[in-house]
Design a protein that fits this description.
single chain; about 90 residues; Transcription Regulator spoIIAA; two-stranded parallel sheet
Length: about 90
């Protein structure tokens, strides 16, 4: 399981994505789960990171899911019409 940081805004987006992709390469199983339970400060950049990481995961043949998506981020993803892409574990 890969864990998101406490803060994920535009300032941290690139570094967070790099960290997730590095972790993805170390995953040996068919499933990749991102743990978002600790995420407390974020902006729409968090959605961009999650969508790009989902794309990277699927490109490697991995099943992608998110655990503990904060309610506010869930609501934002729903507003943008992308919640179906961010399936929860």
């Amino acid at each position: 399981m890969l864990v998101l940081p406490k803060e994920l805004t535009h300032a941290q987006a690139n570094a967070c994505l790099r960290m997730l992709v590095q972790g993805l390469r170390a995953q040996t199983g068919p499933d990749v789960v991102v743990d978002a339970t600790g995420l407390s400060r974020f902006d729409s950049s968090a959605l961009a990171v999650l969508l790009e990481f989902r794309r990277e995961s699927l490109a490697l043949g991995k099943r992608f899911s998110i655990r503990g998506l904060p309610t506010r981020l869930h609501d934002l993803a729903t507003l943008y019409g992308i919640m179906d892409l961010l399936a929860s574990a």
